[in-house]
Amino acid sequence: MSDKVAAPKPALTFVDAVAITVGIVIGAGIFETPSLVAASVGSGRVALLAWFLGGGMSLIGALCYAELATAYPHTGGSYHYLQRAFGKDVSFLFAWARMMVIQTGSIALLAFVFGDYASQLFRLGDYSPSLYAAFAVATLTGLNIIGIQQGKWTQVLFTAAEVLGLLIVAVIGLTSTWNSPLTVTVEPTTQAGLGSAMIFVLLSFGGWNEAAYISAELRNVRRNMARSLFWSIGIITVSYLLINWAYIQGLGISGMAESKAVAADLMRRAVGEPGAVFISLLIAICSFGSINATIFTGARTNYALGQDFSLFAFLGRWRDRTNTPTNALLVQGAITLSLILLGTLTRDGFKTMVDYTAPVFWLFFLLSGLSLFVLRMREPEVPRPFRVPFYPLTPLLFCAICIYMLQSSTAYTGVGALVGVAVLLLGMPLLLVSRRIRS
């Protein structure tokens, strides 16, 4: 069978889907954002409430995505929903944004986290984080090109290490004895403080929607898609609540607020410097696993773009022997390496990538939520094995969350956000070229 006619096979199980989703979400965020949440709210109870609300908000989104993914199982995920709801122009811009900004920026962001913590274990010189980041992207892209079996089993192992490691830190934090906790003055919780905290919380929960991109490769998708989303968010929420409870128990909300590396500080206080080394290794492993999962799902949209637009036809070739979109993986890897270079030049790769991706991500997340309303009205005859409960209230809540995050991400990001939007707009001339080719 030639590459052009080969198609994705249902090779992923329910466990694989949960591993991929959990692996994407549980990564750098939970080691970076708890101190920022603590500083925003100034209360342990409110901090835990914020993390609980983050799980609830993510579940609202998952309910919407479960209906879309089971009614329209497709390797393009949101790309396919946007195309059916709003036409090829919007889906083209989404695929362009995902290829150039959203997914590749997320991979680069995670790669910088891996590089930062790997450098604490063994430094490679002045550009050590960037070298480690480039190494991770190149290695994991190659691993996924070799074949889906290697990619998915790697992800199962990394996800197991992530969850197990978080539980170990939580147990140590909840059971160890301490000297008097660190103190710092923290302002009482305000509405603005809680709102700021939710920005960081939802950032840490980001990525669960990636499960939609494996719907065409998931066995028994109409049953397993919704189950995998609910189980994934449940595992993530419980893990986040436990680890934040451990942080609060071990350091106090004041100690968390003043910490620059809250997990390392917790382990250092519990078991000394070996604890800090352990957590650095754990964060590197978690980031590596998240990079792998994000590479795995990201190339699927590029493949869908190549299937629908002749301008990018070279991306739409599926290698039947390895069951992978090889060209899409290669292009995604090259773009990500370019963004790592951009982050290196700015000398703050992680923050640059957050700024670069956030506004564009929330814009298309909002459009994906709106597509549920459009498709319900336009295609009522399509079977929907899972229907979002309390329609239309649930998707309206999801869209409201997206609008809030779009506004917040615009307000709290810097020049990187303008660069991301500019790259999105560069897709407009390519869209016009693509229209001419179609005509």
Give a verbal description of the structure.
This protein has 439 residues and is mainly alpha-helical. It has one domain: Up-down Bundle (Amino acid/polyamine transporter I), CATH 1.20.1740.10. It is built from 16 helices and no strands. Helix 4 packs across helix 9, helix 6 crosses helix 7 and helix 14 crosses helix 16. It is globular and about 65 Å long. The two termini are 30 Å apart. The N terminus is likely disordered.
Which descriptors apply to this entry?
Amino acid/polyamine transporter I, 0% strand, single chain, mainly alpha
Beta strand % = under 5%
Fourth-level CATH superfamily: Amino acid/polyamine transporter I
Question: Helical element count?
Answer: 16
Number of strands: 0
Shape, principal axes of CA atoms: globular
CATH class annotation: Mainly Alpha
Model regions low in confidence, pLDDT < 50 over at least 5 residues: 1-5, 179-186
